[in-house]
Predict the structure.
Amino acid sequence: MIEILKENKILENLSKEIKENKLSHGIMLISDDDFALTTYSTEIAKMLMCENLQNCACQECLQCRKIMHNNHADVVCYPKVKNVIATEEMLEIVNEAYKTPFETNKKIFILNNASEMNNQAQNKLLKTLEEPPLYLYFILNVSNESKVLPTVKSRCRKIYLPKFTIQQMKEELKEYNLSSDVLEDVLIFSNGSIALAKKFAQDETFVNTVNFVLDLWLNMTHSSLMLKYASKLYLKKNSFEDILKIFSKVAELLIYEKTKTNKLQLSTKRQNQFSILAEQFSLPALKGISENCITANERLQRNCNYNITIDMFLMSFLEEKNKWR
Ligand SMILES: [Zn+2]
């Protein structure tokens, strides 16, 4: 993995800053790929601790190895209990922050899901982030920048992580031994996110889900057919967020197809399907449908009534499709 990360300059630039002692004590990594967030935050922790730091961490010294094995007393990941750091846990973190390091002269706190913390927890963090002890570094892993308080953001060095390329993803997915058809779909629909690609690769229902979404795109042509698709979606509440990702990727691919800007080399089977679909939708309809996906996702995040969200989503899909005929 380190070879892949070295293909861009992020780690190299950070290593310069570490050597010159200029690195900010608050680092915010931003990506919608959990895999990228975890990988980069671990590498940065290693670089801060490494005994032989070059352009990246050496991967061999005691510090690097301890971090690799999740076994370094001065590198701590939060949250420890739930999915998101709650206010009580933040109070603990702040307490821990003022205890000097055990093994080394630095201490690193990696805060996962940092954008999901409530405002109270973020505000508790803020004071320590404003004037951290000299030995302390915070790495905030952020998937949704808009949820982070501006005061917290302004205290951090923000780093936008690049998406992985198709080639890099293929390397990372080798272990799953996917057939070429399934691999293609996993690559198309995970949209440069290795975390999502790995989830799809292990999901036995993934192929069916893609087929269901494409069937809906192709065949839900009239409101009389809505119930058939809605009743299936009512049962898929837990996977609807992923279904939406696949759905909106189809819209994106059809926009590429219509504007002839597709850079993906698709197999004949998928290429034919997308060519047929592209004929059925106008460009404004596809843009409208993309926006509908965002709206449906927002409703999902706000815990709006699920079945109503599905009804509205399918209805607006048909509306867009017919409006631009
Ligand atoms: Zn090292």
Observations:
- Strands lie at 26-30, 75-78, 107-111, 136-142, 157-160.
- The chain has 16 helices and five strands.
- The mean pLDDT is 93.
- Residues 50-52, 57-58, 60-61, 63-64 surround zinc ion (CB under 6 Å).
